[in-house]
Amino acid sequence: MGIxxxxxxxxxSWINALLARSSNxxxxxxxxxxxxxxxxxxxxxxxxxxxxxKKRLQKHRDRLAENVEKHNExxxxxxxxxRDDLARRALEKKQANLSQIEELDGQIEELEANQATLVxxxxxxxxxxxxxxxxxxxxxxxxxxAEAGARVSxxxxxxxxxxxxxxxxxxxxxxxxxxxxxxxxxxxELEETGALDSVLEEGDSIDRxxxxxxxxxxxxxxxxxxxxxxxxxxxxxxxxxxxxxxxxATETDSGAAAEESTVEVDQExxxxxxxxxxxxxxxxxxxx
Length: 288
Prior knowledge:
Layout: H1 3-22, H2 25-80, H3 84-157, H4 161-193, H5 205-230, H6 241-287
Helix pairs in contact: 2-3
């Protein structure tokens, strides 16, 4: 096999594979059925044409038979009038017509035989067409059922093109989700350990720890002050000398703590007033 022959064979193989892949068996069966019906219609049309020709020959034979009777009467009339020449001519025409009638009878018999053959073939073809129609509908139903089953199986197993793409999309989304969750967990862990500083917070991890300690101390101090101002909420009991002594000591300590708190508050007020005065002086200097 030469190169061109092998190339031609390969191309034909590809074309046949593409046609087999894109073909629709249901449509092919319908097309074949229509072809058979067209063939049956052609046979019926042929029978009708043949019958028409036979009818034309029969009408021509009937006219020739009428002419035979006519020429026979003409010959009789010519003999009665002693015109043998006319009688001979009439008889000659009669014989010619009889010869034509005989020939036509042969042709008509042949057409009738052909007509009977075509009618028989037409009946056989009709039976085949009907059988093919039944087989076609059965095969189409089986094919559609098999196709539907295959689609359902592809959908359930995910081997089809569309379901395969859906499955791949779900897998890609799952991978991306896992990646983002892992990234978020890693960033959260790094932020908790202080390896990464938040963009919303100022200072580093040491500053934040010191700030937490300072805030805790301030809260403790404020809590002690609040307790000192409100006093204890325990039920009163009979005072003993030792209890009175401890209460006096407590009151003394509370008074001292309150005085210290007052001093601290007054000092803060003084600092605020000084800051306001300095701000006003700076503003006046900037305006001048």
